Amino acid sequence: MRFVIHRGAKEIGGSCVEVQSGKSRILIDLGLPLVDPKDSSKKLEVNLRRESPARLRERGILPPIRGVWKDLHDGPAVDAILLSHPHQDHHGLLSLVRPDIPVYLSADALRILRRSDAFIKPGANIHNAQFLNHRRAKIVERTPFVVTPFAMDHSAFGALAFVVEADGKRLFYSGDFRGHGRKAALFEELCSKPPRAIDRLLIEGTTLGSASHEERTEEKLEEDLKALYSRYSGLKLVSVSGQNVDRMVTLYKSCKDSGRTFVLDLYTATILEGTKRSSIPHPGPDWHDKRALRVIYTPKYEDILRQHPAYHEVLELAEPFRIEKDEIAKDPGRHVMVFRDSLLDDYTALGDWGKGVLIYSQWSGYRKDPGFAKVDAVLKRRGMDIKPCHTSGHASKAQLKRLVQALKPKILSPMHTFHAELARELWRNVELLEDGRSYEVWGGKMR
Ligand SMILES: [Zn+2]
């Protein structure tokens, strides 16, 4: 069994690994890069709907893999794509793929993708899904590959790691993970009951370049949020990814505990309803606390949902939770609202925010996005503070070490990091890899 990292050996974003055994080939993830392939100091600016595949190829955005892209007729298709989790930097190129290629993923991940497809264009558009279940081995059809998925704690819903086995060799692909989220028990289970005989570990190394520190848990964040709310008498806006389901639970709990109302926008409401979990706050008849959870309708999102008959149900379910602008304007201090840059105009129309705050509950790098400059200006005009309150979706170095200790791979290679070389400071059996080169999963060279 051999593999090629098409992208990700030395960067975060655009993760894609091809695994080969004989004539069979599968891909693990097919993400959109975060940095420009021609100049890694720049954030990638791209429009997948307007730019032709040929142009995207020229720009180095589509990795050169045979039998993947729907605009090319270049031989037999890859046998499958395994998707670790629904984050753009892991699935963002799926819309350009031949529709007949089966995509193996968790049912949770597919539900999130189906819901976000209505809002984010082009969507993942998965036509041929095969479901993977925690710790249940599955043969990839018509191939020698056996895949065993492990549900992981990550800021994406339905995240998986994989053991891929063929030719008597075993590769572990960690995907993105952490051990301090609401599903930390999954990380503990993986460390206490690890799969055996791992030859090669491909481990995410997002935090390799950052200072060592323990990440706050979501429970700790809940307390920190409550403390922040109490310092501001006006409206609380929270910049947060609508797909960070763990964080939505944290926000809801912090509101409920402090007698406040958590207000979802229609996009976030659609995602949360799509989780189909009674334990996750969502608009639906099984969610009884309609005082602590409300949904604000904004014209753009409402139009999107009305245009798709498949999503009319969401509008019906959200109706009993609907909150009007006047209700928020009457008592802004009571409300904690999910915010994103594109909602700025809708939310300024709410009138006076009082002495409020924008809580930044995602990676601080997004504050450099051009869209945030306008937000920043409006906040300044209104005398609003910006306060960070976030915990990473990625494993700390201590957690990375624990996973390696548990899996005891013969050899390990970091990916999904800008600081792969720092892996050598943590472990001895490290092989640093190059994008686009083919490696044996285990050639018996190390130790
Ligand atoms: Zn991720």
Write the layout of secondary structure elements.
Layout: E1 2-7, E2 16-21, E3 24-28, E4 35-36, E5 39-43, H1 53-58, E6 80-82, H2 88-91, E7 103-105, H3 107-116, E8 129-131, E9 138-139, E10 146-151, E11 160-166, E12 169-173, H4 184-192, E13 200-204, H5 218-231, E14 236-239, H6 245-257, E15 261-265, H7 266-274, E16 293-296, H8 299-307, H9 312-318, E17 322-323, H10 325-330, E18 335-339, H11 344-348, E19 357-360, H12 370-381, E20 385-388, H13 397-407, E21 411-415, H14 423-426, E22 438-440
Parallel strand pairs: 3-6, 6-7, 7-8, 12-13, 13-21, 14-18, 14-19, 15-16, 15-18, 16-17, 19-20
Antiparallel strand pairs: 1-2, 1-22, 2-3, 4-5, 9-10, 10-11, 11-12
Bound molecules: zinc ion.
Provide key terms for this protein.
447 residues, alpha/beta, Metallo-beta-lactamase, Chain A, Rossmann fold, seven-stranded mixed beta sheet, seven-stranded parallel beta sheet, 14 helices, 22 strands, 27% helix, 21% strand, globular, binds zinc ion
**What is the subunit organization of this protein?**
single chain
Beta-strand share of residues: 15-25%
Radius of gyration in whole Å, from Cα? Answer: 22 Å
Low-confidence stretches: none
The bound ligands are: zinc ion
Question: What can you see in these coordinates?
Answer:
The chain has 447 residues and is an alpha/beta fold. The chain folds into two domains: 2-211 and 393-440, 4-Layer Sandwich (Metallo-beta-lactamase, Chain A); 218-388, Metallo-hydrolase/oxidoreductase (Rossmann fold). Helix content is 27%, strand content 21%. It contains 14 helices and 22 strands. The chain has helices spanning 53-58, 88-91, 107-116, 184-192, 218-231, 245-257, 266-274, 299-307, 312-318, 325-330, 344-348, 370-381, 397-407, 423-426, and strands at 2-7, 16-21, 24-28, 35-36, 39-43, 80-82, 103-105, 129-131, 138-139, 146-151, 160-166, 169-173, 200-204, 236-239, 261-265, 293-296, 322-323, 335-339, 357-360, 385-388, 411-415, 438-440. A seven-stranded mixed β-sheet has the order 8-7-6-3-2-1-22. Helix 3 (107-116) packs antiparallel against helix 7 (266-274), helix 4 (184-192) runs parallel beside helix 13 (397-407) and helix 5 (218-231) packs across helix 6. The longest helix has 14 residues, at 218-231.
